[in-house]
Amino acid sequence: MLVDGTPYQTIWFRPAEPETVWIIDQRHLPFQFIEEPLRSVEEVAVAIEEMHVRGAGCIGATAGYGMYLASLAAAKTDDFDRVLKTSAKRLKNTRPTAINLSWAVDRQLGAIVHGNSNDDRVQIALQTAQDIAKEDVQACQNIGQYGLALIQEIAARKPAAEPVNILTHCNAGWLAFVDYGSATAPIYAAHDSGIPVHVWVDETRPRNQGARLTAWELASHGVPHTVIPDNAGGHLMQHGDVDLVITGTDRTTYTGDVANKIGTYLKALAAKDNDVPFYVALPSSTFDWKTRDGVKEIPIEERHPSEVTHISGVADGLNVEDEMAIRLVPSTSPAANPAFDVTPSRLITALITERGICKASASSIRNLFPEQVENNF
C-alpha cells in the first residue's frame, strides 16, 4: 500500500543488510510513521509481544523472519539445532492466540532441517521467510477479489451512488498482514473499482486499533469512513445503516469458530439479530486444523491491565512526538484485559479465504482445503 505516495509493506528485507529485518513500528501510528530495524530473535520477540507488529498475517511473517535471524545466530555457534529450537520456543511464547505465529515457526523448522550445512540452512531460512511474506500478500489479494463479489451483489441492489455500508472491528487491514489485509482487501478492491463504499470503523478498545490503524489506512487510501464507539454497531444495524460486517481472525478452528479481537462476538450477535451478513476474512494460514471447539480450546491472551486503565494520544496543539498516556479509571480499581473472544460458527454467514468463500462448517472448510483432510484427520 502507499504511505505518502511511497509503496510499503509491513515487513521487508534489504539484501544489502543481511542481518537486519525492517518493520513499521505500529505503536506510533497514526501520529508518527517509524521504521524499526530488528537484528535479533529477542528484538523480534519483543516487537511481537509489545505490539510493534500485530495482526495474524503480520505476526506470522515477522516470526518467519525471526527464524531467519535465529539461523544467522545459530550458524555462529557450535550447536545450531539447540540455538534454533530455543529461538523457536521464545517466539512461540510471545502471543498465544494468533495461530499464524506457531504456523510460521513450525514451517521454518520443517524447512531448515533439510540444509546440508549451516550456510545452506541460513539460505533456506531466508527463502522460507520471503515465501511466507509473498504468500501472505497473494492470499490477501485473492481474498479481496472473492470479497469484492459480495460487495458488488449488494451494490447492485442499492440505488445508484448510494454507498455500501460496511462495519469493521479492530484492524484486519494491510497493517495486520504484509499487504492488502484480509477484511479490508474487499473494501479496497471495491473502492478501486468505482463502487461507492462507506466503512463504519469501530474504535476497538482497549488499544484502539480501529480508531488508530484502520482509520489511518482508509484515510490514506481515500476510502470514505466514520469512526464510531464500539457499542454503536448494534444501533446502526437496527436502523438499517449496515449492509454487511467483515472482520478478520487470529485463529479459526476447522469447524468454523473464530477467535478475534475482543468484542467481535458481540458484533456477530447484533448482526444475527438484525439479519446483517457477518463475514470473516482469512488466509488459510490462520486455520487451526487441530482444534474443534473454539470457545473451550482456543487460549485467550490476557494482556496488561494498563491497556484498559490508560489511553494514549496527542493533545491538540502539541507535537506528535508528545504522545502521552492518560489514566481513565480510579487508581484503586483493578482491570481485566482479555484480548480476544470466540465467535461460534453458527453466527458467521461465511468465511472469505484465498481459495473462495465457504460456510463456517467443518465439511465446507474441508471441501475447500482437501489436503488438510489427509494431513490432519
Report what the structure shows.
The chain is an alpha/beta fold and 377 residues long. The protein folds into two domains: 2-135, translation initiation factor eif-2b, domain 1 (Four Helix Bundle (Hemerythrin (Met), subunit A), Up-down Bundle), CATH 1.20.120.420; 158-376, Translation initiation factor eif-2b, domain 2 (Rossmann fold, 3-Layer(aba) Sandwich), CATH 3.40.50.10470. It has 13 helices and 18 strands. It has helices at residues 41-49, 56-75, 80-92, 99-112, 118-157, 185-192, 209-221, 233-238, 264-273, 294-297, 306-309, 362-368, 371-376, and strands at 2-3, 6-7, 11-13, 21-24, 35-38, 164-168, 197-202, 225-228, 244-247, 251-253, 258-261, 278-281, 287-288, 310-313, 324-327, 340-343, 350-353, 356-358. The strands form five sheets. It has a seven-stranded mixed β-sheet with strand order 8-7-6-9-12-17-18, with helices on both faces. The chain has a four-stranded mixed β-sheet with strand order 13-10-11-16, covered by helices on one side. Strands 3-4-5 form a three-stranded antiparallel β-sheet, with helices on one face. β7, α7 (209-221) and β8 (225-228) form a beta-alpha-beta unit. α2 (56-75) packs antiparallel against α5 (118-157) and α5 (118-157) crosses α6 (185-192). The mean pLDDT is 95.
